[in-house]
């Protein structure tokens, strides 16, 4: 009886080679920083090692399918010292990248702080001269509502760790009364991300 089920039918070598090539490309993508960034930091190195091992296996298999024929091409086993050297080089590379990123982040934070403080000082003087007390009150209320809405969007729909941190930092800029008031008027619980934010727990100091 002939098997007409395509899912279990033998795959020609040409199709198998094309599939392996596509899978190699996917494995390469999985090693990029953009994908690793979605994982907890302690899992990123493990994920990279697994993705690299999978890519090596697929690449070796692809070499065996040259000329659309199956050739046995044993891959030489690397000496343990070579593997240790590669591991050390990778560790040094990762450490160097981290140092560069930390240095760049520190420089940005210094420039950011200086710019923000200067803006606050000059903007304060502008508002003293141009705005009435009632206008200032309205501005503060509007800005607070914008910050609350921004924090809510970061906290909703299973946020990333960085999103949650940014949201908490945003909420820390606001008074407890502002946050509690906003939650009290949200009777329909439309802002579910803010529902579990406790002003007493998150602002102990």
TrEMBL record:
Record's protein name: Phage protein
Species classification: Bacteria, Bacillati, Bacillota, Bacilli, Lactobacillales
